[in-house]
Design a protein that fits this description.
The structure is a homodimer.
Chain A (H helix, E strand, L loop, with lengths): L6 H13 L2 H8 L3 H15 L14 H28 L4 E7 L1 H6 L1 H11 L3 E7 L2 H9 L5 E5 L7 E16 L10 E2 L8 E3 L13 H5 L2 E2 L3 H9 L4 E5 L10 E8 L3 E9 L6 H17 L1
Parallel strand pairs in A: 1-2, 1-3, 5-9, 6-7, 6-8
Antiparallel strand pairs in A: 3-10, 4-8, 4-9, 4-10
Helix pairs in contact in A: 1-2, 1-3, 1-4, 2-3
Chain A binds a DNA duplex (30 and 30 nucleotides) through helix 3.
DNA sequence: ATACAGTGATCAGACTTTCTTACCGGCCAT
DNA sequence: ATGGCCGGTAAGAAAGTCTGATCACTGTAT
């Protein structure tokens, strides 16, 4: 029904007009003159109306003059889109939505993102944080493209790339009897007021599991947890990265018997692929941790 | 440098998404499934990034999802332009600029234009009037596409199609001695107060030329001329079409010895071609006068 | 006046792109 | 297992596009 306007012939018309002739246009388009001539003729036939006057010189018909600005507009839009897509693919511009668990978001991401935007100044990043399960949901649901988290359960639809191990330790106030220790075994904690938190299930399956049964509270919110620790009500276990260093009165003592670690890594959709910008981010993160860890 | 996005492959992507598969899209596009498949692959290679996930089902990649609305937009604009140009060519819409000498503009054009817009309801017409020379200039300069006028001088760059002949007669007030005549010869005018006007040079070269030497005034403005005639100051000669019938006191008496006629016709650029809308107008006018005269 | 340098148009052949037909391998439900 | 559906692949036909050589025309300079 409607004729398809290809971009090349339109470009020919444009070139003929502003180069002032078929030969000049051909030179400008790196084509031969017959190619230009035939492209125009083909276009004219498709439209059913000549664009250039027949007699000698390259003068537009009234219909051609009518078409010219419209051709120019379509070409402009085509080129804009083409450029935009290429830029996306080449990771020169774009947007990455990602998520991370709070400890990573606050302790790892600032440097990481800073370095990232140094290398990719035109890429934009959105980062949200949440607990490991929330991050997993976001990635699985496609709401973010990448997650930085620890993996609790295997999921066939998700790819997990381990990046770093994060050892669990005991956190207490500086005046606590255990505060001076260099390292601790789990037996030393028996009888203490232990506060459970969101990371406590790391101990499940380890030798320290019996401690969980003793815990008096279960506080998931980090602010509340630190408040309780600072007030000296009890102690807790946390991975080192999750230990809030900015609280002067809190101490972190590595747990060495048993050693318990969580594995932090990059979570991405397994079946779906990533946007070019997210690919850049993925490569950057893996490279960054490949160097340091 | 930048890849050329052809419309067809983009349409394929669109069809695949909203038909929900390659086969369905192929049916919708009246192509075979491999054609669709290959078109997409070609496009992906050109962009350097897959649009659809590789695993089985037709699911867009994030990049594909990013592209989709942009493809849709480009296609929409392409189709809009294509439709618009076809409508122009088929004379369904458009605009004609034309000019006519006042007598034609006021006595012929009203009916003509009315009939024209009946047949071409979506075509717009601009009409301006002016004397024959002005009309010729407008057509020659390309400011209007068509002129309705009489041709004074041959011009190689202009085509003139005769449409009607317009006989010159004598115009006088109803109480003038000549007013009762059915027809007149030029000798009957000798000794009368003759007012020249813009059409008087029609008499040049005819037997009645001696009259011009006797003329007392030369009034080019029609309003002034009729005022003088109505006041009974003198008489003049006019082609019948230029005779202002709305003045009850004026009479038109055909000049039969010699018969002097002007030839009114359609003036159009000879070298340049016409816009589709103007072509419709030209054909319409020639057809209309072919019937009646 | 003649020759010439410029224009765009034309044609045959090579090349590229695009389509169709026929077939393959994977997946899912019966 | 098997039939039906999916999309991908291969080979050949068809259509489109480019080049190089050549033509016809025009205006200009000799």
């Amino acid at each position: 029904m409607l004729p398809e306007l290809k971009i090349q012939p339109l470009r020919c018309v444009l070139a003929i007009v502003d180069a002032g002739g078929f030969h000049a246009a051909a030179r400008q388009l790196h084509r031969t003159q017959p190619a230009v001539s035939m492209a125009v003729r083909e276009l004219e036939q498709r439209l059913g109306e000549p664009l250039f006057e027949k007699g000698g010189k390259s003068v537009l018909t009234p219909f051609g003059a009518y078409c010219l600005p419209r051709f120019r507009e379509l070409i402009t839009q085509h080129d804009r889109l083409s450029r935009e897509l290429v830029a996306q693919v080449q990771q020169q511009v774009g947007h990455v939505d990602m998520a991370a668990v709070p400890s990573v978001a606050s302790r790892v991401m600032p440097r990481l993102l800073n370095d990232f935007i140094q290398r990719h100044p035109a890429l934009r990043v959105s980062l949200q944080d949440g607990n490991a399960d929330f991050v997993r949901q976001l990635v699985a649901g496609g709401e973010v493209e990448l997650g930085l988290t620890s993996l609790w359960q295997k999921d066939d639809d998700l790819d997990f790339t381990p990046l770093m191990r994060d050892a669990v330790g005991v956190v207490c106030r500086d005046d606590h009897p255990l505060a001076g220790q260099e390292a601790l075994g789990w037996e030393a904690l028996q009888g203490q007021v232990l506060i459970r938190n969101g990371t406590s299930r790391l101990l499940e399956g380890s030798d320290a599991e019996p401690l969980l049964a003793e815990s008096a509270f279960d506080i998931s919110n980090m602010i509340s947890l630190t408040a309780m620790l600072v007030s000296g009500i009890g102690i807790t276990t946390l991975p080192r990265l999750a230990f809030p260093e900015e609280y002067e009165r809190l101490r972190f003592i590595p747990l060495v018997d048993p050693r318990v670690e969580r594995e932090l890594g990059l979570l991405r959709p397994g079946r779906r692929s990533l946007s070019p910008a997210a690919q850049a981010m993925e490569a950057f993160i893996i490279e960054a941790f490949g160097e340091t860890g």
